[in-house]
C-alpha cells in the first residue's frame, strides 16, 4: 500500500494533521496492512519522525519513539537513521524527555550501534549528513582503515553532483575532498595556533601570512574541509567591539575572510569547467595555484568532470628544494607542474614548511581520521551562513572603516550564497534546511534591526560626520539586504518567514525618497516584499506614493501654466486633477487660483472641446467640495472675485460681451447644484457667505450679461431651482431674489422662467417651512388659476375662504411611505389584473364596484412587475380623465374614485421615471391636482396623496442621482427607488417618507493620507523631500538651490528641508556625495578627516556593485566630471613623513586601485595619463621610492606597528601597479582594434 501521502503529512505544520497521520500509520502497522520491513525502506519517514520533536507542539512522543524502536531492528532503517545523524540527535533529545522515554531512546541507540557493517566513526555524524553525499575516497586513503576496507567498498557510490537530489535547498554543498600531507597539516596547525594566541602582533602577522601566502598556495576548499582556521577568524571578529587596538585585529580577520571568499569563488569557477578556467589572477605571478590547475587538467581527461569527483591536492610545498620566501613566486610553475601527480604526492613528505625554513624536522602530528574530518567539514552553504551570522552584528560598531570592510566582505559572501543556496530552502523540511532557515532568519532579523538603528540615529544630535556615516550605512545595508532577499527568498513566501524587524526596515526603505531616486530597482524590491509582509504599512506607502505623485503634478502644473506660448490644456487639467489630493500636506493655496483661472479660460473660449470642458469642470467641482476647509474657502473666494470682476458695477461702462464670458464656467447645473446644495449650507461662514454672494451676483446680474449668457444661466438654473427655493425668504436678499423667479413679470416684460417651470416653482413653495413664503406662493398660484382657461367652469371657486385653508394644506402629520415591492414571482395572474382594470374603467358598472376594483388595483400595483400591464392599458390617461371630471361642475358623482385613483397614479409614477418627466411638464395636470386637493381639503388621505404626487413631479429633476454624478453609475438605480437630496429634507415639509442621497457632495474626493499618517515621521519626511524635489524639478536643481546663498521663500516654512533631509539627499545622491567627499579632502586639516572622506567614497563603489548589473556605474560616471585628481594630487607627490601619512596614503592608493578595477572594462584615458605622469615624474617619485626601503627606513623599523603599516603600503602599491598594467593592456587592445577597424 502506498503511504507517501501519509508520510508527507507527518511533517505538516499543523499538529492535528501530523497526529492524525501518525495514528493512521500506526493503525496500519498494527493491523498488518503495512509491514514494518516495508516502512524501514522509506527514508522520508525517518526524516519526519526525527523532525517530529522540532515542532513547538510535540504530541504522541512515546508512540513516535516506539515506532522508531520497532523499525530499528531492520538494517535499512539503521542506515537511514545513521545517515540522518540520528545518533547525535537522539543523544541530545534524551536529556530533554521524561525518564520513561529515555529508556525508549536507549533502546533505539542500542539498535543503531549493533549493526555489524556499520563504521563506528559515523556515530559522531551531525544532522546535516543527509544533505551531503560523500565523494569516493581517494586512493591515498588506502592504509587508513585496512580492517574495514571490505565494508568501506560496499558503501562507495558512483560520483554524483555535490548537491544531491535529496537536498533541494542546495545548489552546491561540499567541494571534492582533498587530503593533506603532514607538511600541509603542520602549516595549517601552526597558523591555527597562532590565531588563538594572546599576542596581538602574532595574530596580525598570521593574518597577513594567511592572506598573502597560505590562501594563495592552498586551494580555498581546504579551509572549509578543515575549518579550525575559519572558526578562529570568526572568533577574532568579536574583537571589533573591544578596545586597545583589538578592532584592527577584527579588520584583519575581515580581510582574511574576504580573501577566502574570493578564492572560493575562483574554485567554484574552476570546478564548473577546469579546461577553461584559469586561476592566474595577475600578470607576473606563477604560483602553485596555477600549477594545481594544470595538474588537475592533466589528471582529468574529461572537459567537464563531475564536481563530486576528487583527486589528491598537489601541495604547494610538495616541490623539490626549499623555498626561501613564502610569497609563492620563487618556483617555475611549469617545471613544478610537469611531473605526475603521483610523484608530487611522494615528494611532499620531506619538504619543510614555509613558516619556519630553519626547522626542517617537523613535529609529529597524529594520523588523520579522514572520515571523521569529512563529517566535521563546513559545507559552502554553512560557511556562507556562518559568515553572515558573525559579520552582520559588526555593522553597528560605529566605525566607518569597519562598516565598509564588512559590507565589502558581505558582498563577496552574497555571490557565494547565490552559488550555494537555492530558493527551495524554504520548502525543504530536512533537518539541515531547518537549521539553515533558522540562522538565515536570525540574520535577516539582525539586518532589519541594524537598518532601523542607523536610520533612527541620523536625526539624533550627533556631529555631521557621524550622521553622514549612519546615512551611508543605512543605504548600503539596505541595498545588501534587498539583494540578499532577492537571492534567497521568493516574494510570495515573505509573509511566512521574514521577521518583524525586517518588515519595519523595508517600510523605511519604501518611504525613503532619495533611495527610490538613486536606486529604483532596490526600492521596487523593498516595496514588493513590504506588500507581502505588512498590508497596513504597504497601504500607508501606497497612499504616500499617491500623495507624492500629486505633489509632482501640483509643482509641474504651476511650472507649466506660467510658461509662455501654446499649452496642452488637457494635460494641464489632468495635472490639476491629480494635484488636488496633496493639499492636505502642502497647503499651497496659490495653486487654487491658477486652477480656477484655467477653468475660466477654458469655458470662456467658444472653441473649447466638450471633453476639455468636461474634464476641467470635474476638477472645479472637486475643488468646490474639497474636504479641506482652507481649500474650499479659497476656491469660493476666488470664484467670488471672478464674478465681481465680471459682473461688478465698475464694469458698467465697458462692453458686456468682453467681460461676462469669464463666468461661463459657473453656468452649469452641476456647478450651481454644488453651490446651492452644499455651499450655502456649509457650516463655515466664509464658505456659505461666498456661496450666497456668488448666487446673488448671478441672479441680479442680468443687466451685466449678454442675452446669450443670461439665457445660459437660466437654463442651467432650472434643474437646480428645487434646491434653491428652499432658501426662499422675503427678508433675505438672496431669498428674495429666489422668490422673484416665481413671480410674474410686469406687463409687457419677459418672464424670467418658462411658464411651466414657474408654475412648478410656485407649487413647490407651498411645501417650504416658512409660512410667510407659503402664503405668498398661494397668492401667486391663485393669480395663475384665475387666468387659467375655463377657470369659471372648474371647481372650487377661488375665494378668501378657500385660500385661508390652503396655506397649510400639505403640511401633513403622517407622511406616506414611497416604497414598492419587487417580487421575484407573480402572485396574481395578468388576466386577473386586466379583468379588475376593466371593471374599474367600465361606465356600465356601479361606482361602488368600480371603487372596489380601483382599491384592488392599488394593492396589486404595490408589486412593480404588475405595472407593465396597466400602463399598456393606458391607466394614467384614464386617471387624468377622472380627475378632470372631478373638478368639473358635475364632479361630485365621481368623487368616490378619486382617492384610489390617486394612489394608483402615485405607485405607477414612483416606479416610472419616464412618466414622471413627461407629466411634470404638463401644467394642466399640476393645476388639476391642486384643485383636487382643494376640493378634498378635509379628506386627509386625498390631500396626502396629492402632496406625494407633487413630490414626485416637482422634485423629479433633483431625484435623479446620475444627473449630478461626475461619473455616471455603471448600473442604473432600481426603478422602485425614489430618493431626494438631504438638503431638500432640511428645507421642505414633505408629505412623504423617501430615501435621502447626497448627504455629502457627490464630487468630494477622499484624501490619500489621514492626519495620523501625516504624523508619521517617515511619511512626512518623504513628502517634504518630494515637494522640494518637484518644486525645483529634480535632485540636481535642488542641490544647487541648497548650496546657493540667495534663498527665495516661495512656500510655507513647514515645507522647507530640515538639516536631516539635506544630509540625506546629499549623501544618498552619488554625484553629490562624491563631491562632498572631495570637498572634505580639500578642506581637511588633519589626517583623520581625509581618511574618513576617502573611505566614504568606497561606499559609493560598493553601492554600485550591490545595485547595478553591468554598464557604466553612476559612481564611475560621476567621478569623470569631478576634479578629484587635484584633490588627491598633493598626497601622491610628497613622501609620507610619519606613520599617519603612511596610513593615509594606504587609503588613497586603495581607493585608486578600486577605481581602476571598477573602470577596467572601460578605463578612463584621462585617469591613466594622470597616473602615468605621477609614475614617470623625475626623482623624488614617492610612488616608486616607497617600494624599496632606504637604509635609514630599514633601521627605523623596530616598531611592529610601523612595520605592519609600511608593509601594507607596499602591498597596496604593488596591487595598484598590477591593476594599472591590466588597464593599460585593455586600453592598448582597444587602440589596436580602432586602428585595424
UniProtKB/TrEMBL annotation:
Listed Pfam families: RTTN_N
Rotatin N-terminal domain span: 16-112
Residue ranges, compositional bias (Low complexity): 305-319
Segments for region (Disordered): 300-339
One Gene Ontology cellular component: centrosome
Gene Ontology BP terms: centriole replication; centriole-centriole cohesion; ciliary basal body organization
Protein's name according to its UniProt entry: Rotatin
Organism the protein comes from: Myotis myotis (Greater mouse-eared bat)
Amino acid at each position: 500500500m502506498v503511504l507517501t501521502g501519509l508520510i508527507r503529512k507527518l511533517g505538516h505544520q499543523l499538529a492535528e494533521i501530523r497526529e492524525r497521520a501518525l495514528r493512521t500509520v500506526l493503525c496500519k502497522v498494527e493491523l498488518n496492512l503495512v509491514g514494518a520491513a516495508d516502512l524501514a525502506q522509506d527514508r522520508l519517514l525517518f526524516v519526519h519522525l526525527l523532525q517530529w520533536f522540532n515542532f513547538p507542539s510535540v504530541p504522541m512522543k512515546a508512540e513516535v519513539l516506539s515506532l522508531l524502536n520497532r523499525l530499528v531492528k531492520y538494517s535499512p532503517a539503521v542506515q537511514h537513521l545513521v545517515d540522518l545523524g540520528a545518533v547525535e540527535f537522539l543523544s541530545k533529545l534524551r536529556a530533554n524527555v521524561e525518564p520513561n522515554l529515555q529508556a525508549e531512546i536507549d533502546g533505539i541507540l542500542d539498535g543503531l550501534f549493533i549493526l555489524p557493517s556499520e563504521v563506528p566513526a559515523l556515530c559522531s555524524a551531525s544532522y546535516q549528513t543527509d544533505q551531503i553525499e560523500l565523494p569516493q575516497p581517494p586512493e591515498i586513503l588506502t592504509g587508513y582503515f585496512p580492517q574495514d576496507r571490505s565494508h568501506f567498498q560496499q558503501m562507495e557510490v558512483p560520483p554524483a553532483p555535490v548537491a544531491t537530489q535529496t537536498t533541494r535547498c542546495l545548489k552546491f554543498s561540499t567541494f571534492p575532498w582533498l587530503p593533506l600531507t603532514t607538511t600541509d597539516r603542520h602549516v595549517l596547525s601552526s597558523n591555527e595556533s597562532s590565531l588563538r594566541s594572546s599576542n596581538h602582533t602574532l595574530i596580525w602577522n598570521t593574518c597577513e601570512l594567511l592572506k598573502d601566502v597560505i590562501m594563495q598556495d592552498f586551494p580555498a576548499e581546504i579551509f572549509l574541509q578543515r575549518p579550525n582556521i575559519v572558526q578562529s577568524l570568526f572568533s577574532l571578529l568579536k574583537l571589533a567591539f573591544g578596545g586597545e587596538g583589538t578592532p584592527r585585529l577584527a579588520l584583519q580577520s575581515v580581510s582574511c575572510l574576504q580573501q577566502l571568499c574570493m578564492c572560493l569563488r575562483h574554485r567554484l569557477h574552476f570546478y564548473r569547467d577546469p579546461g577553461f578556467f584559469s586561476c592566474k589572477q595577475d600578470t607576473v605571478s606563477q604560483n602553485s595555484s596555477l600549477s594545481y590547475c594544470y595538474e588537475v587538467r592533466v589528471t582529468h581527461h574529461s572537459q567537464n568532470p563531475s564536481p563530486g569527483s576528487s583527486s589528491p591536492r598537489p601541495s604547494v610545498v610538495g616541490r623539490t628544494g626549499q623555498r626561501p620566501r613564502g610569497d609563492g613566486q620563487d618556483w617555475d610553475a611549469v617545471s613544478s607542474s610537469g611531473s605526475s601527480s603521483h610523484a608530487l604526492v611522494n615528494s611532499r613528505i620531506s619538504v619543510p614548511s614555509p613558516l619556519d625554513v630553519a626547522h626542517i624536522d617537523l613535529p609529529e602530528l597524529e594520523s588523520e581520521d579522514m572520515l571523521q574530518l569529512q563529517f566535521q567539514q563546513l559545507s559552502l552553504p554553512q560557511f556562507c551562513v556562518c559568515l553572515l551570522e558573525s559579520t552582520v552584528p559588526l555593522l553597528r560598531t560605529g566605525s566607518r572603516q569597519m562598516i565598509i570592510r564588512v559590507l565589502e566582505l558581505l558582498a563577496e559572501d552574497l555571490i557565494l550564497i547565490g552559488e550555494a543556496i537555492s530558493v527551495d530552502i524554504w520548502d525543504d523540511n530536512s533537518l539541515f534546511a531547518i537549521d539553515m532557515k533558522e540562522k538565515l532568519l536570525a540574520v535577516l532579523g539582525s539586518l532589519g534591526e541594524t537598518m532601523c538603528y542607523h536610520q533612527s540615529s541620523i536625526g539624533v544630535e550627533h556631529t555631521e560626520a557621524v550622521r553622514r556615516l549612519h546615512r551611508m550605512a543605512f543605504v548600503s545595508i539596505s541595498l545588501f539586504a534587498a539583494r540578499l532577499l532577492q537571492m534567497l527568498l521568493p516574494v510570495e513566501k515573505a509573509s511566512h518567514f521574514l521577521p518583524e524587524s525586517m518588515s519595519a526596515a523595508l517600510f523605511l526603505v519604501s518611504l525613503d525618497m532619495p533611495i527610490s531616486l538613486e536606486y529604483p530597482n532596490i526600492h521596487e524590491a523593498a516595496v514588493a516584499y513590504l506588500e507581502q509582509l505588512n498590508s497596513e504599512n504597504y497601504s500607508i506607502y501606497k497612499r504616500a506614493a499617491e500623495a507624492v505623485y500629486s505633489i509632482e503634478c501640483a509643482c509641474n502644473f504651476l511650472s507649466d501654466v506660467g510658461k509662455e506660448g501654446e499649452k496642452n490644456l488637457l494635460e494641464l487639467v489632468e495635472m490639476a486633477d491629480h494635484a488636488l489630493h496633496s493639499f492636505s500636506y502642502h497647503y499651497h493655496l496659490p495653486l487654487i487660483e491658477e486652477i480656477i483661472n484655467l477653468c475660466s479660460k477654458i469655458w470662456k473660449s467658444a472653441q473649447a472641446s466638450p471633453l476639455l470642458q468636461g474634464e476641467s469642470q470635474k476638477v472645479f467641482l472637486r475643488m468646490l467640495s474639497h474636504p479641506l476647509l482652507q481649500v474650499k474657502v479659497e476656491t469660493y473666494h476666488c470664484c467670488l472675485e471672478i464674478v465681481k470682476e465680471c459682473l461688478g458695477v465698475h464694469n458698467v461702462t465697458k462692453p458686456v460681451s468682453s467681460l461676462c464670458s469669464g463666468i461661463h464656467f459657473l453656468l452649469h447645473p452641476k456647478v450651481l447644484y454644488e453651490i446651492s446644495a452644499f455651499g450655502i449650507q456649509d457650516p463655515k461662514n466664509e464658505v456659505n457667505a461666498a456661496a450666497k454672494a456668488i448666487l446673488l451676483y448671478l441672479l441680479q446680474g442680468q443687466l451685466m450679461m449678454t442675452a446669450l449668457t443670461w439665457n445660459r444661466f437660466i437654463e442651467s438654473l432650472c434643474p437646480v431651482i428645487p434646491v434653491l427655493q428652499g432658501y426662499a425668504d422675503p427678508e433675505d436678499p438672496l431669498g428674495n431674489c429666489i422668490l422673484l423667479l416665481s413671480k410674474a413679470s410686469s406687463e409687457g416684460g419677459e418672464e424670467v422662467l418658462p411658464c411651466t417651470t414657474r408654475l412648478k416653482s410656485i407649487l413647490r413653495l407651498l411645501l417650504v417651512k416658512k409660512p410667510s413664503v407659503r402664503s405668498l406662493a398661494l397668492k401667486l398660484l391663485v393669480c395663475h388659476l384665475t387666468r387659467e382657461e375655463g377657470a369659471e367652469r372648474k371647481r372650487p371657486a377661488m375665494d378668501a375662504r378657500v385660500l385661508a385653508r390652503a396655506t397649510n394644506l400639505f403640511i401633513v402629520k403622517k407622511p406616506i411611505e414611497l416604497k414598492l415591492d419587487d417580487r421575484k414571482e407573480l402572485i396574481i395572474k395578468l388576466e386577473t389584473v386586466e379583468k379588475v382594470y376593466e371593471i374599474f374603467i367600465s361606465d356600465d358598472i356601479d361606482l361602488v364596484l368600480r371603487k372596489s376594483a380601483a382599491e384592488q388595483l392599488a394593492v396589486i400595483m404595490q408589486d412593480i412587475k404588475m405595472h407593465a400591464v396597466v400602463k399598456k392599458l393606458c391607466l394614467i390617461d384614464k386617471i387624468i380623465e377622472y380627475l378632470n371630471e372631478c373638478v368639473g361642475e358635475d364632479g361630485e358623482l365621481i368623487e368616490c374614485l378619486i382617492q384610489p385613483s390617486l394612489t394608483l397614479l402615485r405607485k405607477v409614477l414612483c416606479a416610472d421615471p419616464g412618466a414622471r418627466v413627461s407629466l411634470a411638464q404638463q401644467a394642466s395636470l399640476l393645476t388639476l391636482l391642486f384643485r383636487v386637493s382643494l376640493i378634498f381639503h378635509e379628506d386627509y388621505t386625498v390631500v396626502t396623496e396629492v402632496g406625494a404626487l407633487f413630490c414626485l413631479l416637482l422634485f423629479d429633476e433633483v431625484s435623479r442621482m446620475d444627473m449630478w454624478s461626475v461619473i455616471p453609475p455603471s448600473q442604473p438605480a432600481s426603478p422602485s427607488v425614489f430618493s431626494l437630496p438631504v438638503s431638500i429634507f432640511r428645507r421642505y415639509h414633505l408629505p412623504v417618507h423617501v430615501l435621502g442621497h447626497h448627504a455629502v457632495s457627490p464630487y468630494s474626493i477622499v484624501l490619500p493620507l489621514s492626519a495620523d499618517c501625516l504624523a508619521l515621521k517617515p511619511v512626512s519626511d518623504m513628502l517634504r523631500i518630494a515637494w522640494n524635489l518637484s518644486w525645483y524639478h529634480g535632485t540636481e536643481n535642488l542641490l544647487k538651490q541648497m548650496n546657493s546663498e540667495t534663498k527665495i521663500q516661495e512656500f510655507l516654512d513647514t515645507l522647507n528641508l530640515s538639516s536631516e533631509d539635506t544630509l540625506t539627499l546629499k549623501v544618498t545622491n552619488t554625484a553629490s556625495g562624491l563631491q562632498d567627499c572631495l570637498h572634505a579632502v580639500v578642506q581637511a586639516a588633519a589626517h583623520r578627516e581625509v581618511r574618513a572622506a576617502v573611505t566614504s567614497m568606497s561606499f559609493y563603489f560598493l553601492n554600485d556593485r550591490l545595485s547595478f548589473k553591468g554598464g557604466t556605474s553612476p559612481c564611475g560616471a560621476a567621478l569623470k566630471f569631478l576634479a578629484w585628481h587635484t584633490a588627491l594630487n598633493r598626497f601622491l607627490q610628497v613622501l609620507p613623513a610619519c606613520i599617519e601619512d603612511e596610513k593615509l596614503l594606504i587609503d588613497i592608493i586603495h581607493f585608486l586601485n578600486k577605481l581602476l578595477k571598477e573602470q577596467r572594462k572601460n578605463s578612463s584615458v584621462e585617469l591613466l595619463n594622470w597616473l602615468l605622469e605621477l609614475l614617470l615624474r623625475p626623482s623624488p617619485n614617492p610612488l616608486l621610492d616607497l617600494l624599496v626601503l632606504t637604509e635609514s627606513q630599514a633601521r627605523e623599523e623596530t616598531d611592529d606597528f610601523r612595520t605592519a603599516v609600511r608593509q601594507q603600503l607596499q602591498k597596496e602599491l604593488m596591487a595598484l601597479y598590477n591593476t594599472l598594467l591590466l588597464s593599460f593592456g585593455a586600453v592598448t587592445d582597444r587602440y589596436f582594434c580602432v586602428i585595424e577597424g
